[in-house]
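Recap from last week: sequence in, structure out.
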Amino acid sequence: MRRFLLLYATQQGQAKAIAEEICEKAAAHGFSADLHCISESDKYDLKTETAPLVVVVSTTGTGDPPDTARKFVKKIQDKTLPGDFFAHLRYGLLGLGDSEYTYFCNGGKVIDKRLQELGARHFYDTGHADDCVGLELVVEPWIDGLWAALTKHFVSSKGIEEMSVALTTASTVSQKMDPVKPELIHIESQVELLRLDDSGRKDSEVLEQNAVNRDQSSALIAELESSLTRSIPPLSQASLNIPALPPEYLQVHLHESPGQEESQESVTSVDPVFQVPVSKAVQLTTNDAIKTTLLVELDISKTDFSYQPGDAFNLICPNSDSEVQSLLQRLQLTDQREHLVLLKIKADTKKKGAALPQHIPERCSLQFILTWCLEIRAVPKKAFLRALVDCTSDGAEKRRLQELCSRQGAADYNRFVRDACANLLDLLLAFPSCQPPLSLLLEHLPKLQPRPYSCASSSLSHPGKLHFVFNIVEFLSNTTPVVLRRGVCTGWLATLVESVLQPNRHASHADGGKAVAPQISISPRTANSFHLPNDPSVPIIMVGPGTGVAPFIGFLQHREKLQEQHPDEHYGAMWLFFGCRHQERDYLFREELRHFHKHGILTHLKVSFSRDSPAREEQAPVKYVQDNIQLHSKQLARLLLHENGYIYVCGDAKNMARDVNDTLVEIISKEVGVDKLDAMKTLATLKEEKRYLQDIWS
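Predicted C-alpha cells:
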C-alpha cells in the first residue's frame, strides 16, 4: 500500500480531527497514512522522508501557528539551513483559519512559505479553509482531490525526476511571486495577509465564495419554515451524500465505587497548575451597564507563579453544573454519575492508531469527567452528527440528522448548528429518539479548554497578587426559546466570587472581604511577546477598548514604579486609546487612568464613548478607538516610523483589531505619501520587528 506522512498542528482539535478523517479515508483509496502530531518530532524525520507529506495546520487568533507547532516552526526558521534542505520533499498543505481575523490562515502560510524556501515543492494545491463561512466548504473538496493528486505523484515519481517536477500541481498565488530577498520573505507573507481586496484570490476561491453566497440566499428564502429539526424542499427531497460512519473505538465500563475525593488536579495540563485563592473581587461597571465587568485579585504569594505585565495565564474552569445534570438526565445516567469510568480500546476497532483520549483521566467519576474534562458546549462536528444518525430510531429525526451532516445540507448545518452554537444537549433535546451510548460522547466531545486571561497588574505594584478583568458573557440560546446562557468560564467565575464581590468601581481602593476565599486553578501561558520594550525611552501606543485595557493597566503600574525607583532615566511617551459605550457606566479604571495621566506616567489619554452624544453639537462624533487614532495620525506616524515606537492592540479580534489595522494602513499611506500596498509592507515590517503587537480574542 502506498504510504504518505500525515502531520497535524492543532490548537483546539480541529486540525487533528481533519487529519484523522484523512487517515480513515486513505485505505479506501489504496493509501496508508502515517499520522502524527507535528510536535512528535521523534516519530518522523522530514530530512530523510521519501514519501509525500500532507500537513493540516490551524491558526491562533493572533495569526501564529498553534502551540503544538512552535518547536517545528522554530526549527525550520533556522537561517543556517541551506536552500535545498527539503529539495527532496513533495507536500500538500491544508490551512485552517477565520477570515474575520486580520491574519487569515497565517499558521499554514508561515509553514508553507518556509518549506518552499527550503526547496520543498507541492504535489497538491494549498487549501485555505475559512471557519467564518464553514471549514467544510474547502476541507471536503480538498480531501476529495487529495487522492488523485497522491496517485499522480506516485505515478510520476516512477519516471525521471524532471517529469515529476513538471507534473506537480501549480503553486498558490503567493508562491508564484518573483523571488524576494531573504529578509523580505516574512514581510511579503504578512503583506499578503493584509490585502484589502480579493484580487489575489484564485478563481476556485471566488467560485467557492459565490457558492457560499448562493447558500446564504437560499437560507434567507427558507427562513420562514426550516429549523434545526425540519427542512424544506429542495433539501427535504434531495438524495444525500453523507459522510462515512466514524469507526467506534472506545469500550466504556461504569464501575460502582465507594465515594472518593476528586480534585481539579486530575485535569490534564502540559503546564504546571497552581491552586490560588481569590483575595478580592470588584464590579467595575454600574448596574445599568450593558455588560457587567469584574476585576478579580488572586493571591499568588504562596506559589512559584510569576508574571510580567502583558502576560496572560490559563484559568481551568468547569462546565455548568445544571447543564451537566441535564445531560446526565437526558442520557439516563443520573443514577450512575458517581460511578468510575473505565476505558479500553475496542479489540475489533477499525480506527487506525486508536488511543485513549489523553484529556480523560483514569478512574474518575462520570460526573467529574463531564464537569471538568469535556467541552459539552462544543458545536458537534459533522462526523459526530453522522454517528448520532445510527443512534436515532425515529425516521424523520434520522433523516434530518442525515441532512445536517450531508454535503447537500451544508447551509442548514451552518445556520442551525454552527452559527447557532447548538451543542450536544441541544441536539439530544431536539431529537428525543436519539439515544447515544456514553462511548460515543467520549469519542467525539473535545477537551474542555482552559480559558486565557490577560494579567491586569504589575508585580512591582502588587507583590504577591495577580489581577485580571472579564465581562460576564450572557447570550440568548438560539435553540431553546427564552433561555439566557452565560459563558462557561465567566458564568462560573461570577458565581464563584459572589461571596467576596464588592460593588466598588475604584479597584485600587477596595479591600478584600472577610468571606472564605474561593480557590481557582491557573497555569502560565508561554511564548508571549506582548511585553513592554526593553528600552524605556521608546514611545509606546496602547489601543485597548473595554476589557482590552487590562494589560495596559499592568504596563502603567509597572512604569510608575520604575519611574519612582529610577527617576533620572529617560522615559518615552505613553499613549492610550480607550473606548467604551458610556462614560458613566462602563469607563473601566477611570480613576486609575486619571491618576496615571495627572502624574505624567500616561502622557496622552484618548477616550471615546460609542453610545454617548457629543458634548457639543458642532463636535464630530469620536465613537471608536480607530476614530481617535485617525485624529492623531501625524503624531502616531512620527512615533512609529521615525522614533522607533511600539504599538500594542488588545481586545476584540473580529471587529476592533481589524478596524485598527485598516486605520493604521490609511495613516501610513496618507502621512508617508505611499499607496496602500507599500503601507501594508511598512505595517508588516513593524509586526516582523515585534513593534506591532496584538493580544486579541473572539
